[in-house]
Amino acid sequence: MRVAIDGESIIGGVCSERYPKSGVGLVTYLVVAPAARGQGLGERLLREAVSALDTPLVLGEVNDPRVHGEGWERLERFQRWGARVLDARYVQPALGPGLERDRGLLLIAFAPLPDTVDGATVRLFVEELYAATEGGAPDPETAIPDRVAAGTCTRPGAARGW
Question: Is 145 part of a structural domain of the chain?
């Protein structure tokens, strides 16, 4: 976890974790106080977290605006910062007892940023994540191909995208 402080105030933070079997890092949370936005703090916190994880692949989760009808700004911001959207069906495990699995998220890759990512590594990460959070196997809707395309996702009507 990294925290940004200005005087006596916390103005931002990022949380991340490393999954030992897959060697994948996961950025789990990034926040910047409204008064500190637009000054590069979020991007700096993200880059520092990715660097500190020191793993071949760092992933994150973001709401899929194609499902939710909103959230394009957040996805576009991550893409401006260099993130690539993984073209795979992902279902986030329930993060606690009594909570539901989230079927409306995208996996995004922060590092490295190739055109494709090894699907076996992503599948192993998802298996580790489910084992840690739910103690079982991934949701059957999760579908990770052997080679996962990493690209951009654009608003409907834009020139390119999925």
Answer: yes
